[in-house]
Write a sequence for this structure.
């Protein structure tokens, strides 16, 4: 099976590495919860045990997911500022409102933080465009004010 590379900013990679480190450091605490819950006897009706095992499964699943992402990560850097590309911070005027987005890969996209995926509809519409360029998106006039 061919794995595709996963686009991450350097900041996104650091955040994932920190989350991975925190999850790995949290393993002993989860194991203690399981051991403590196990001491109460019948595991079939032990809600504390079930909860701790579920927490362990979620943590281990996330650890594997992050390790896979980091193994296949391709670090993106903001390139030339003459056109929108991965890693670029773009200031837009959308229908009279000014918004700023950073174009990132889908793994670290978080629109509430102003990080949009290059695979999202607006991300796709922005890629390759230049500063001062105007276009229409979802019925709104959009102008690229500047690319940082």
């Amino acid at each position: 099976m061919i794995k595709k590379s996963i686009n991450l900013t350097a900041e996104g990679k650091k955040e994932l590495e920190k989350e991975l480190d925190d999850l790995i450091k949290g393993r002993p605490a989860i194991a203690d919860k399981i051991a403590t819950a196990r001491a109460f006897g019948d595991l079939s009706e032990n809600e504390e045990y079930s909860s701790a095992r579920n927490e362990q499964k979620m943590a281990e699943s996330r650890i594997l997911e992050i390790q896979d992402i980091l193994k296949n990560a391709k670090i993106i850097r903001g390139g030339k500022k003459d056109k929108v590309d991965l890693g670029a911070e773009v200031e837009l005027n959308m229908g009279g409102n000014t918004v700023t987005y950073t174009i990132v890969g889908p793994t670290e996209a978080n629109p509430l933080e102003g990080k949009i995926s290059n695979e999202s509809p607006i991300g796709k519409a922005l890629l390759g465009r230049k500063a001062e360029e105007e276009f229409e998106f979802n019925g709104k006039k959009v102008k690229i004010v500047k690319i940082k």
User: Anything to note?
Assistant: The chain is about 40% helix and 25% strand.
